[in-house]
Design a protein that fits this description.
- There is one protein chain.
- The chain is mainly α and about 150 residues long.
- It has a two-stranded parallel ribbon.
- Strand 1, helix 2 and strand 2 form a beta-alpha-beta unit.
- The mean pLDDT is about 95.
- It catalyses: RX + glutathione = an S-substituted glutathione + a halide anion + H(+).
- It is found in: Endoplasmic reticulum membrane; Mitochondrion outer membrane.
- GO terms for molecular function: glutathione transferase activity.
């Protein structure tokens, strides 16, 4: 097992990009709220009481909510697999570039899906690269620890 000390550059990189992605997930709640206020559509009557309406199917709000759900489906998996991956002793440069690509891809996914929707394959690419990296890290963890048995 590799050093998982905070002095390990791969661990530091993992922590940095995990923090960025944690803030990104929190930011999605603000983005949803912004879209609700912009469109004056809310999920609760008390929120709509000041000049809005209760509506559960606004396409613009739902687009942001789907992007948020996509983050909630993918970022925690990155956190788990990334944490396990650093225990395998990857090169710091490779780990940093993988973590950086995941963070950039997840941020870009939100931009092309919820902020400024672009036609495919923009969303597929920004989703697929971080997804493939998570699979790669998971496979490397399984290989590393399977060979240790």
């Amino acid at each position: 097992m590799a050093s998982i000390s905070l002095d390990n550059p791969a661990v530091q990189s993992y922590l940095l990009y995990s923090g960025i992605l944690g803030l990104k997930v929190l930011g999605m709640s603000l983005l949803t709220g912004r879209q609700r206020y912009k469109k004056k559509v809310f999920a609760n009557p008390e929120d709509a009481a000041r000049g809005g309406k209760v509506k559960f199917d606004d396409p613009d709000v739902e687009r942001v909510r789907r992007a948020h759900l996509n983050d909630l489906e993918n970022i925690p998996v990155f956190w788990v697999l990334g944490a396990l991956y650093v225990t395998t002793g990857p090169s710091a440069a490779l780990a940093t570039n993988l973590f950086r690509a995941v963070a950039a891809g997840r941020i870009l996914h939100t931009i092309v899906y919820a902020v400024k929707p672009l036609p495919q394959p923009a969303r597929a690419i920004s989703f697929g690269i971080p997804f493939a990296i998570s699979i790669y890290m998971g496979v490397k963890v399984v290989q590393f620890y399977f060979s240790a048995l």
